[in-house]
Amino acid sequence: MARRTNWFFQSLTAIAAVATLPLGILAGLFVGLTAALAVFVVGWLLLVPTFAILSGETMAVGTDPDEVERWMDVAERAKERGRNGNETADENSLETLRDRYARGELTDEQFEHKLERLLETETLEDVEKWAQDARDERDRNLEYES
C-alpha cells in the first residue's frame, strides 16, 4: 500500500510541476497577472513540494552507504578508545579525518564538510544517531525502489 501511495504522490508531483506553467500563462493572459502569480505560487511553492514530501522524494544528504559504514567504524573505534582512556572520541575522529585527508581519500570540500559535521557533533551518541538516521533513510529508499 505504501508503494502505491508513493506512486500516486509522485504522479501528482509531476502533474503539478508540469501543469503549473501553462495554467499560469493562461491565467495571466485571460484573468490577469495577479491570478498568474497565484497559480505559480500555489503550484510550484505549495503543491509540488508538498506532494514530493508525501511521496518520499526528498533527498537526504550524506546517506551514501559506504560513508555511513566508515563513520560507524570511526564511532566504534572512538567508543573503544574512550573506554580504554587512551584518548577522547573527538580527538580520535579528528585524527581519522585528518589521516583520510592526508592519504588523499577526501577532497578539500569533503574534508571541510566532514570537519564541520564533526565539530557540530557534541557527543558520540549524536554520531550514532546520524548514522542510524542515514541507514533508515537508505532502507526507506530501498523499500521504495523494490
Give the SSE string: HHHHHH
Tell me, briefly, the overall form.
elongated
* Quaternary structure of the protein: single chain
Count of DSSP H/I helices: 6
Radius of gyration using CA atoms only = 22 Å
Mean pLDDT: 76
Structural class estimated from helices and strands: mainly alpha
The percent range for helix content is: over 70%
Terminal CA distance: 13 Å
Write the layout of secondary structure elements.
Blueprint: H1 2-30, H2 33-55, H3 65-84, H4 89-102, H5 108-120, H6 124-145
Helix pairs in contact: 1-2, 3-4, 3-6, 4-5
Q: Can you tell me about this structure?
A:
The structure is a single chain. With 146 residues, this protein is mostly helical. The chain folds into two domains: 2-55; 65-145, no CATH class. It is 83% helix and 0% strand. It contains six helices and no strands. The protein has helices spanning 2-30, 33-55, 65-84, 89-102, 108-120, 124-145. Helix 3 packs across helix 4 (89-102). 11% of the residues are buried. The mean pLDDT is 76.
Relevant terms:
146 residues, mainly alpha, 2 domains, 6 helices, 83% helix, 0% strand, elongated
Put the structure in a nutshell.
The protein is built from six helices and no strands. It has 146 residues and is mostly helical.
